Structures are given as structure tokens and as C-alpha cells.
Task: structure prediction
Amino acid sequence: MKLIQLIHPNHRRRIAVVDQNSLELITSEFSSNYELFSKMITEQSSADKFIPNVLTGEKHDYDQVYTSNSKWKILPAFDHPASPLHCILSGTGLTHKASAENRQKMHQQLKKEEITDSMKMYLLGEEGGKPGKGIVGVQPEWFYKGTGTSLKAHGDLLEIPPYADDGGEEPEIAGIYLVAEDGSPYKVGYAQANEFSDHVMERKNYLYLAPSKLRQCAIGPELILDHDFQDITGNVEIRRNGKKVWSETIKTGEQNMCHSVENLEHHHFKYEQHRIPGTVHIHFYGADAFSFGEGLRLKGGDQMIVSFKGFGRELVNTVSDKRKIVKPVRVNLI
Result:
């Protein structure tokens, strides 16, 4: 089952079930996936039992909505509709070997054969990232990307901010989580994602990883409820002036990762700060290819296309380059 979030200038927010080329609206009692899943958690109901009972029968042409030829606009596949600050964006790096190798090349400073801290972190995951049921595995790398104020949808611009050194796509799958009123985290599903980062800043020194991740990102267009996250093939493509300038086949899923998702989830939600009732967590699981790793620098106007088999229609975003000479931020005194 796949859900999509929409907004209309007259009808405001709605959610719909994706049925091939049709979008069937869910009753207006639920204007967001957040409200829908909060209700299901409260009633301890499953999606396959609850959602068929709230369908309206009203359908819209998905092609028209997807190509922006409708008044309906696609929103991020999941968010916190009332308070973006209660939506936490985070991720786990070095979960895929190719990603670790790209980072190794970026951070290598001494002899060519020397192993960097990035590769050591990946190898720790290889050794203890899949410990088995009921056992705590090795802790992965973890990063913070910001709040829901940085979350964008299919078709939106992703900005290279004024203070940035660069901006580059990172095609991934994100896990979507909602924390219940008793503090228990629930996995809602998955979404295709572009985790958009500043690789030039990170390359200067790996200790700049944290600020390089504080950028906009995108998920969607669809929320996937019931996909097997084992072996997933995708494709990432960059188009410039309408022409393809780079593309790559990508792989994700637990079979292609050094950590199990269960281990990643434990190390994210073990912190009490991540189990605050009512909060949304969108967590990026990592990727194994991005254009910067192969020498391409994105420009304003470039299109980034992310697609994973079985995860709905392509996630397409355009780069908006806002870089300029930055003046110091002035902090006022009271």
C-alpha cells in the first residue's frame, strides 16, 4: 500500500491511496498521514484494516498531479503538519561499502594504503552491525540534518544556501517513524529520499561532517507501508539543460548494508530525547553512489532524479544555487 499527501488551494491538505494512475482520497477527517497513523496507533489497528474503511471513492488523475498540471500539489510523504520543529531529520552514514570507499577517497591524507577513520567505522559495522535478534550491535555513525523546516517534496527546489561550499544529491531510502503518547516508537513505512549534502565542505576535514549535513532534503512522493527492505535496486540520474549528464545504478536494503535496520533503530531510539511523544523521525539509511564521488559538481538548474524499484514514482528535485558572499550574522543584545 502506498499513500500520498496533497494540498489544494481550496480544499487544503488531504491524503490519498495510490492506485496505479489514480489517487483515491481518504476522508477529510484525516488531513495528514500524521493524523491517520496517530489514530491507528491509538486504536491499535493495522493499515490494511483501517484504511479501506476511510476511503471516499473520490479519485484524481495521478499523472496530472505528478506533473504539476493540477491544482493539487504533492507534499512530503510524511511530516508533522502542526509543528515542523517536532519532526527530526537524521541519518546513518557508512552503512554501504561503496559509500565508505567514496568517503575513504575524500578523507585520505597520508599514504594511499592507509585506512581512514571512515573506513574503520564501516569495518566496525561489518564486524558487529548485524548481531542477531535480541542482541545490541556496534553503534553506527549518526548525523543530524535538522527539523521539518528543511523537509521538501517531489518537485521542490533543493537550495545550496549562501554559506555552502557545494550541494550534491544522495539517493537513499528513509525510514519514517512516529512516537506514540507512551513514548514507544512506531515505524510507519519508507520513502524514497534525496539526502542532499555539502560534500566539498565535508572533504575539507571529516570533522566538518556535522555542518555539511545541515541542508534541505526531500522525500516522496509516496509513503510505502509494506515493502520488504532486503535487496533493493534503484537509479540516480542528473540532468542538465534537459540532457542526462550522469547516472548510476544503486543498491540498498539490508543485504547491501553492514548494519541491520533493527540495529540502526536501536541506536537511534535508545536516546530518551528521541522518544518524545508525538514527534516524527525521518531517518536516512545511507546510499552507495552519488555523483560527487565520481567527480561531478552540480549547478543551479540541475535536476536530480531518484528512483527505487517498488517505491513509487521518481523523486525529482531541482538544484537552486543561492551561494554568495556571506556577511557575519549579528546577534542582538537585549
Observations:
- The chain has two domains: 2-74, 84-321.
- The chain has eight helices and 18 strands.
